[in-house]
Amino acid sequence: MVIAFTYLCFTVLAPWQLGKHNRTSRENRQIEYSLNTDPVPLKTLLPQQDSSAPNAQWRRVTATGHYLPDVQVLARLRVIEGKPAFEVLAPFVVDDGPTVLVDRGYVRPEEGSHVPPIPRPPQNTVTVTARLRDSEPVAPGKEPLAQDGVQQVYSINTGQVAALTKVPLAGSYLQLTEDQPGGLGVIGVPHLDAGPFLSYGIQWISFGIVAPLGLGYFAYSEIRARRREKEQRQAAAGAATAAPDAPPAPTTVEAKLADRYGRRR
């Protein structure tokens, strides 16, 4: 059991937490860089339709083009500022560039998790400023659905949305900043917090080291205790073997008679 626990500490639990720490630290560096860097044209990072830019996540970009206003997908079961929300997704055709998925922002569900009325995006050519985001992994076991007449997904995965809408999309998507054409409720940037993952990873490594050491200590203590007991039993047996046979002690009556007749003789 201890061996299995130690194995899990070093091969599963510690790498899991340290991996989360590395991803969080990387994202924090990208966010900090984006906050202190001017926007760049989208086509410098996504030059063609099948482009993605995982190393430029959160980078601010500008793009000129037009929405496809009749194509709309909602990301359901999102939590923004501690409250449930839908994130509204729409394709955006960049002039002389790729078609990208744009996260217009969020709306709050109506009573019973129903979709509220959502304003359509502008149909004319507009220029938007947004943050570049990585496509999310598909939620396992969660298939897209249609509810309240709107297609809905559980994660913002550009491949899944492209298959659902039949619109080719680039690998990364855009998240609008404040005061943008077609924008809704603004989704803020995460706080720059590394979280407890590094300390958790170190703790699992410590547990993996301490567990076998503790087992070894208790095993050694048990062996020493049994050895002492064996030595004590052997010493007691040796003492009993070495002592001469002695007659049984006389009873009180026998002692009195012996004393009386002995004195007469």
TrEMBL record:
Keywords: Cell membrane, Membrane, Transmembrane, Transmembrane helix
Residue segments, region Disordered: 229-265
Signal peptide (residue range): none
Basic and acidic residues bias spans: 256-265
Transmembrane segments: 197-220
Subcellular location: Cell membrane; Membrane
Regions of compositional bias (Low complexity) in chain numbering: 235-244
UniProt record similarity statement: Belongs to the SURF1 family.
Official protein name in the record: SURF1-like protein
